[in-house]
Design brief:
- GO terms for molecular function: ATP binding; ATP hydrolysis activity.
- The protein contains ten helices and ten strands.
- The protein is of the alpha/beta class and about 260 residues long.
- It has two domains: about 160 residues, 3-Layer(aba) Sandwich (Rossmann fold); about 70 residues, no CATH class.
- It has a six-stranded mixed sheet with strand order 6-7-8-3-9-10, with helices on both faces. A four-stranded antiparallel sheet has the order 2-1-4-5.
- It starts with 10 loop residues before the first strand and ends with a helix.
- Bound molecules: adenosine-5'-triphosphate.
- Adenosine-5'-triphosphate (ATP) binds next to strand 2 and helix 1.
């Protein structure tokens, strides 16, 4: 494929499975994330969302299945695949004893970002971090730390962005602002985003498509604005609660 040509998908997952002894945490998941697309990964606590994301990040080894990032196989072409990826989550804060600028610079050097100084300035501007640039990350509020984590996640201009509850600690205005920035990032950079959230209002606003996962399996997939009515529910939250309570009825429906 000629350089610069986009592959059909940012992420393709086939038959992905992860077991811990008897427990099947992820049970044969197939999914795709296309460019310019924000896909919500929804499911109750313990459904397997973080396990799935950790396998896509190459942190956890799958028990079975394949992961392709921008067409590169995560096992056979690991470096090429991971170079196209980045990640942000509240449980993975940046080192607290370094300043915002130092953190972004160190990650920029690790990623081999070209014109790093200019890139850092534009991200500091974009994420409204000017006031905190010389503050140690450990003293920032969780909302401020989230903005730094998102700026870090965009340093290498990933084609696949994995976000585990990116707005969980943000006030409603900041969360709205971050959603708008991520939407713009996906559209302008032709990036695919896989986004986990327990906030159904947010998911309906920002996601192009959602996947409901329960007990490690994808039960439903579709447009978050249409899915509730298709399944006889008023809202995405109603649908979520119903699936979480009665996952077996949806397994039969999709079988
Ligand atoms: N290292 C591990 N060893 C054993 N079991 C694990 C391990 N990691 C996760 N699990 C189990 O795998 C299942 C899926 O966990 P996972 O963290 O992926 O869920 P989740 O959907 O991200 O949940 P939450 O919404 O609460 O973050 C859970 O039952 C969990 O207890």
């Amino acid at each position: 494929m000629p350089p610069g040509t986009l592959t059909p998908t940012a992420l393709t997952v086939r038959g992905l499975r992860k077991t811990y002894g008897e427990l099947v945490a992820v049970d044969g998941v197939d999914l795709e994330v296309r460019h310019n697309e924000i896909v919500g990964l929804l499911g109750p606590n313990g459904a397997g969302k973080t396990t799935l994301i950790n396998m896509i990040l190459g942190i956890l080894e799958p028990s079975a299945g394949h992961i392709l990032i921008e067409g590169a196989d995560l096992v056979a072409e690991r470096r090429q695949a991971l170079e196209q990826t980045n990640f942000a989550a509240i449980y993975a804060p940046l080192p607290g004893n370094m300043t915002v600028y130092q953190n972004l610079r160190v990650f920029g050097l690790l990623y081999g970002v070209e014109h790093l100084r200019a890139k850092l300035e534009s991200l500091i501007e974009e994420f409204d971090l000017q006031r905190y640039r010389n503050q140690k990350c450990g003293v920032l509020s969780s909302g401020e730390q989230t903005r730094v984590a998102l700026a870090k996640a965009m340093l290498n201009e990933p084609k696949l962005l994995l976000l585990d509850e990116p707005t969980a600690s943000l006030d409603p205005a900041s969360a709205h602002d971050i959603r708008a920035r991520l939407r713009a990032f996906a559209d302008q950079r032709h990036c695919g985003v896989l986004w986990t959230s327990h906030n159904m209002y947010e998911v309906a606003e920002v996601c192009d498509r959602v996947l409901f996962i329960s007990r490690g399996r994808v039960l439903l997939e579709g447009n978050p604005r249409d899915l509730p009515r298709t399944h006889g529910r008023e809202t995405l939250e109603d649908l979520f609660i119903h699936i979480a309570r009665e996952p077996l009825s949806y397994e039969r429906e999709t079988a």
